[in-house]
Amino acid sequence: MEEKIKELRAAIEQAGAAVTNEAELSAFWQQFLSKNGAVAGLTKSLRDVPKEERPAVGKTINEFKNWAEAQYQALSAQVERAALAARNAAETVDITLPAQKRPNGSLHPITLVKNEIVDVFSGMGFEIYEGPEIEDDDHNFTRLNVPKNHPARDMQDTFYVAEDIVLRTHTSPGQIRVMDSEKPPIKVLVPGRVFRSDSDATHSPMFHQMEGLVVDKGITLCDLQGMLDEFVQALFGEGVKTRLRPSYFPFTEPSVEVDVSCFECGGKGCPLCKHTGWIEVLGGGIVHHNVLANCGIDPKVYSGLAFGIGIERIAMLKYGINNIGLMFENDLRFLKQFED
What we know:
Elements: H1 2-17, H2 22-32, H3 38-44, H4 54-90, H5 109-122, E1 127-128, E2 134-136, H6 137-140, E3 160-162, E4 165-167, H7 173-181, E5 186-195, E6 206-216, H8 221-236, E7 242-249, E8 252-261, E9 278-287, H9 289-294, E10 303-310, H10 311-319, H11 332-335
Parallel strand pairs: 1-5
Antiparallel strand pairs: 2-4, 3-4, 5-6, 6-10, 7-8, 8-9, 9-10
């Protein structure tokens, strides 16, 4: 037995000297210290030792087993130190090198303008509602006083998902959903993406609108103009005025186009305002009595005002952007101009 232990000790020392990584350490354990390893084999061989010699031999085997396990622990610590040293070497940072700059991000110009508009109208008591982008024909057209075969549908260039399901052409369906769920007085903004089959320097198949709706007793166009005066002065500066021009929208009557006095030339005339002194910014009007009635609101008791703002339109005017496509190209050279 002593000769076996001596040979096994030499084998363990030789194998241990070759261990340099975790895989070799695992193989060392399997060969010598596992349940079926060489050291466990010594214990099994006790059955071949005469009974009177077993206590002494068993003690010798246990002492050798403890020594072998100590060898394994020492090897394990050695491998761990080597792995840590290798990891530290790989992760070494040369503090003499220039720092890697990580530029700060910034909000997109559309988001900046949207937030400004929301801040202005929320200060007037407006709530925010965001409706679905995929709408049924009833909410997108019919209940907004645009029945089937109405010529106003031709103005929309609609994307149809199914026969009566569309990508919403405006955020006005949000008006219907709010009036269905709330009773007057109502004061709500409906921002979101809208979709129309139209594309040029000032139009995009996908763009952003913000619808405003107020329903209460005694609402008039004067309320609309006063509200929009506050809005344009907050966005374009004090002294900017609004002008209402007659127009047509099927869901308002009377309907108006809203112009602002040119904030570039002060109304004197310049290329921005095409030398007229005025710039068209949005449309609005008094909510048509049919729209109120379609939502269960008595038009003889209540009236309302509504307006629709093209967020890209406002951003292009505010920041002097001449092509709407620039806002959807993700060109960092363009977007960096709006960093705080």
